[in-house]
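Crash report, auto-generated. Payload:
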Amino acid sequence: MKTPDIFYVEDDVDYAFFMQSAIQEVKDTLNLAIVEDGTEALQKLQNFAESRIKPKLILLDLNLPGLSGLDLLKFIRDIPYLKTIPVILFSTSDNPDDVKASMEFGANAYLTKPDGYENLVKCVHSVHDFWFNQYLRLN
Amino acid sequence: MLIREIKYAEISNIYMTKFSVDLTNCDKEPIHIPGKIQSHGLLVAVDKNSLSITYISENAEVFLGEQARSLLNKQLSTLNRFLKQQNPAFEIEDLLKLGIIRKSFDAISPHPVEINGRSYYLIISSSKSDWLLEFEPVTLQFDIQSSIGRSASSMLQGKSISALLKGAAQEVKKLINYDRIMIYKFLDDGHGEVVAEEKEAELEPFFGLHYPASDIPKQARALYKLNLTRLIADVNIPDSPILTFKENEALDLTNSALRAVSPIHIQYLKNMGVYSSFSISLIAHGELWGLIACHNYSPKFIDYKAREGAKLIGQILSSALEYRQEEEDTAVIEQFKNTANILQEHLNRDKYLVEAITTHKRTILDTTKASGVVIIFDNELKTIGDVPSEEEIRELAEWLKTNNDESIYHTHRLSEIYSPAKKYKSIASGILSCVLNKEMGEMIIWFKPEIITTVNWAGNPEKPVVPSENGLLNLSPRKSFETWSQVVNNTSEKWMAEEIASVLRIREIIITDINKKANEIRLLNEKLQAAYEELDTFSYTISHDLRTPLTSIKTYAELILKNKSIDENGQKMLGRILIGADKMNFLIKEILNLARVGRSEINFETINVESLLNEIKSEVWSAFKADHSELILGQLPHIKGDKTMIAQLFTNLIGNAVKYSAMVDKPKIEVSAYIDEGETIYAVKDNGIGIDNRYYDRVFELFKRMDNVKNIEGTGVGLAIVKRIVEKHNGRVWFESKLNIGSTFFVAFKNR
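Recovered output after restart:
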């Protein structure tokens, strides 16, 4: 299995599509793996751990059918092999309670889904710049 | 007598130092044990166990021809030899035993006997451990029964109470033929009034005169209830002392007809010129209602049977009075009850209490005989009829609230207790108040006007007692009976017991109604609260769910717009879709914010407003591209509140200030605060377009936007959010504004 650069869990197919285009627009070599629900995501994460595959970044939608983004985050942080991967919670909600809960569960960042495509591209740009360039340098 | 005189002197000394001497001293006289009898009859007392003679009146010698003292301690049967009876075999001790077996002497008294050829009645009664045997002369030659029957029926023809009384006086005069017959009624304070009179033509009338309470002392009144008639045959004949060997035991003469009269009362009668007096008690509902007082200006004895006849007339009159009074009372009570029922119906039907009891044909005024009423309820004051001014009523209510703990208070002499009422005594000399809620000062007050009346006293009741020659105060009864007129003012008609009962009844009804309505409001409030919370949840969810598809719409539009093959027209339309989506997105965000304020719990912390405002400034200034606007910060004390909400509050207020001043020459926004009486008051001031004061009340309403801002972007949610946040913090928000000059919004936070 090819190691994805970004592992993205998103039940909204439209948004998944936008993310796909935005990432390609930012850097077309970036490899994006998307799953649509929590259970499938859980399965995938277990496979990663077993086959020693480590995505560079995980993006989790907060509100997912079945398991929520927070449940997945907790799971990731409990698996020693995966727990060092940066995780960003990505949601339409800007409710401070959600932000607070995410940070408490060990998210590296909480991003409110940008409004519109142009904003999304800008957002992905900065995420890429930070987590794929700056972050790596820092390490 | 000597002992008693000394005692009086002592009493007078005490009274003299206190300066309150009046004839109430009579109250102290032990009139039931005078130790003497009126000498027109003979009294013998025998021990109930031994039937030996224990007491005998000194005048026994006059009647029996044997020294009284010699009969003491002899058996009762000793008397038989003096008595001649119709049945010679029948002896006096048999008579006594018969009464003892029957437990009553009613059927035995009067028993006719003959002593030394003269006719007497023997009347037997009880006195503690002795039997009293009294002999008095028979003077009536004819049977009086038939004339009593006639008297009673003609007396009862009187329909009204006054006609009834007048008739009774006439009939009693016919029966006993005294010079003057008065019917004397006791009023509440114990003083009496002559309410009917029948007299010889040449006598001065006493009708309508009032007699002070001290004229008939307390213990005399108690005796009037026990002995329904009382004869004083001749005030000038010396009494006959009672002889006994039981030195320190005075014989109780409570039930004796011959009982000697108190020297004070004898003097009183003498002062009035009366030689003989007779009285018949009138009892209504177990209480002494009054007396039929008969005066004769020469000595006069009344035969036992005539006295019994008069007593019967008195009893018939008593029950007639009771019945007539009840009839009149019942009519009043019925009317009051009827009013209470009608008001209850109004209360059930009408929404507002005051309206229900004041606006219909039958009102709260009809629950008493008052001429005006005020209802103080819910801070409102509603009056019917003749009442003092609103200001006067408010003062009176305040006085009642502080000086009175009872739920019902009444007086018929208000201005004498509460001097400010002097100004309006003509309409409110009588008040009857009933408290609905003491803390709130809610009450109903009924008013009665002043009635100026003249009371004619038979002698000045307050005339001080004159010291006698030996320096002691003179305790003989008053000598002057000259009519003394007193004008009574500051007084209203009295409040009847029925009126007070009626007020208690209506108070109960009103309080029940208030509680019922309060409960309804509470339930309604709970429902409203629930609906409000539901609405918050609903708006939150719906807004949230709307955002996702909206984002898709917008993003697809943007993606399509990237496609180079779309022509200019298509690009224009996609542009419109984007603008629409942005507007909708902003609105949804605002509603979310508003709903969030309603849903969130406040998390109080100390807020550094200065650093908060600096954050807000950069956010707001970039959002509105307000580089040319100036922000001036004054004193910015810390406040306690929820940081997120307070940030939202200032963002909205400062955002508005920037937005609505952007078009002026030099926009200037000032934020400062001051501390005032436990509050920190923040002011956000701009020099923008201002708000028309006509819309003052609508400014904080949801989705309300003023006419002069139609061209400026806005949702009408911002100030509604501000208001909700302030309310959540138990603070206050208001503004001052002038069109085209600027607005200042004030927010007052409680210092915690």
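Post-recovery validation: The longest helix of chain B spans residues 497-562.
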